[in-house]
Amino acid sequence: MEIDLSQFSQVFFEESLEGLESMESELLKLDIAAPDPEAINTIFRAAHSIKGGSGTFGFNQVANYTHLLETLLDEIRDGRREMTSHHQDILLLSVDLLRNMLDAVMHQQTFDHPMLADLEQKFAAELSQGESQEDAASREPETPEQTTWQISFKAGTDILRYGNDPLLMFNELGQCGELSVELLPQEIPDFTQYDPEACYLAWSLTLTTDQPLSRLKEAFEWVEDECDIDYQAQPKASEASEITTEKEIEATAESDIQASTQTTTPASVQPEKPASQTRPSVVSSKTQDAGSIRVSIEKIDLLINMVGELVITQAMLGQIGQQEEMTPESFITMKQGLEQLASHTRDLQESVMQIRMLPISFAFNRFPRLVRDIGQQLGKQVELILKGEDTELDKTVMEKIVDPMVHLVRNSLDHGLETPEVRRQKGKPETGTLTLNAFHQGGNIIIEIIDDGAGLNTQKILDKARAKGLVGSDEELSEEAIHQLIFKPGFSTAETVSDLSGRGVGMDVVLRNIHELNGTIELKSTQDKGSRFTIRLPLTLAILDGQLVRIGTHTYVVPLVAIHESLEVPAAHINRLSEEHEVIRLRDEYLPVLKVYEAFHHEADAKQIKDGLVMVVDANNDKVGLLVDELLSQQQVVIKSLEDNYSKVAGISGATILGDGTVALIIDIAGLVSLAGINSTQEHAA
């Protein structure tokens, strides 16, 4: 019987990627001077599991490479080799490499990267250094001696259910030498008790090989706990009276340490090399989305309970619907049923949304490695502190916020934190502090990136902005407005272009990506004290708190998080800059006004600003007014993708279905401003 292993491979990929996260976490925490044996065992177990699984599924390139890691780690945990910083470096690089190798396997692509050969050579050189001269001398002239092994293999009943195919194991064993396989007779249950998914087979394997027993056992290590396996060496001519069993040849024991997937921080990073000595090229990795999510049993149980309550309510309403006549009591019961239905539906919605919620530690866990590598590259000492790691966030939002967070962290490391010498001159500790913090506030999640570095040099930023023509030579800006200039496209104060910064690409992308998530970003900075970036995001992209507005006969939704205020504007506060553009004076600032009906080609009641309502909203950290006819209700709306169901529409981020069955489009403020050709507030005010 041949089993399709593809149905199980996704689980292998997910568990392998979790194992790599565990390896990386433990390696970053490891004290090289006194490595924790438990940590070494955790790292070894992760590599061991990946090797065994990849061998079972036939991913030989992954299996062969992880075998090198396993060999080195086995010597370290047995005390035959001391852990060094070089080992830590090549093992961390191996984590990157394996992520990319697994990604290639997942996408059925050939993996061919020079880093693979480079690291294989490093492992080979490292492992060869562990041999004594006597061992090497005695091994070189020897001709490997052939041994014939008799192996009995009785499969566990559940072996096929878990995707372990004996044929693949036999194929791997056959690579060690000359193999013959014989199926042994077994008692099969009768038809009434036969389980078609169970395995009742056993084999006798005869293998002639020059490989040691430990190499043979690798073919079965993935299933050794659930199968009966016995190894016996056939006697040689000179040893006809002796039979060597497995226990007499090799006694093996392996601690069953569970691979932890959690990172504990803070983690300290100390530069191990001068900044001029660049680290080896690291294969880039963002772990690919596996398209699945692990959910706790408690959340599933709650969901099942909610569905049960809905079924009961539906049955009650169904009975009322079958009555030939409606009595007053029936109306009362129906009203109560509808109220219960509304309550259960709301609870069900909350339960379903909780399934998509994951702790933000899934995003935070990648930063200890990033901070370590960049700190070493820049010659900076950095302590990374993670707070609020249990704060939950929608999986989709988390995936999209990681890239902006990475850029902000790199920006803090490159521009914010000073070198130890500079910090010492300023009277600061040589080790800088970088803090990532997350917490809930209302219906949003707040993510903070805080450093105690140099802060922003407002005068330098202003001079650069004037040189680029972003600010007029005589124009005066507040400190907050100057800080916002770093989010302008193409803006950079870096003197030289490096791998990390200087090209003027990045902060504008950060701003755009956050706005696409219906979020905002704030910046507060004090020179020589540090900077704080505060990102505010909705907890989920599936549901939106929105303000419904009317424009003619059309209803639109404006994200509530982007709205500052709505007001009627008197004619005296309206100025026309050109035929197309008007601004309003609101307290001490001038705001451009976008006539939504013109952008969307509608007929509106209010075609002039003085006749309608102006809604002041955020647009790329500037304020813009939207002219609408009427404010309707505020409500939560379920977001439907236009791209999935229709096509992308400029100025529209999605759609929703209202309670009366009509469709309302959700306005993308940044896209609408771009569509209307409105520039920044400062340019209009000038």
Can you walk through the features of this model?
This protein is of the alpha+beta class and 686 residues long. 39% of the residues lie in helices and 22% in strands. It has a six-stranded mixed sheet with strand order 6-8-10-11-13-12. It has a six-stranded mixed sheet with strand order 16-20-21-19-18-17. Helix 13 packs parallel to helix 14. The longest helix has 28 residues, at 328-355. The N and C termini lie far apart (78 Å).
What would the keywords be for this entry?
disordered C terminus, 22 helices, alpha+beta, 686 residues, 22% strand, six-stranded mixed sheet
Uncertain segments are: 132-140, 237-285, 680-686
Strand order of the largest sheet: 6-8-10-11-13-12
Query: What percent of residues adopt helix (DSSP H or I)?
Result: 25-40%
Average pLDDT, to the nearest integer? 81
**What overall form do the CA principal axes indicate?**
flat
Biggest sheet layout: 6 strands, mixed
Strand content: 15-25%
| Structural class computed from helices and strand pairing | alpha+beta
Q: Tell me which oligomeric state these chains represent.
A: single chain
The total count of helices amounts to 22
End-to-end gap: 78 Å
Radius of gyration: 33 Å
What is the count of β-strands? 24
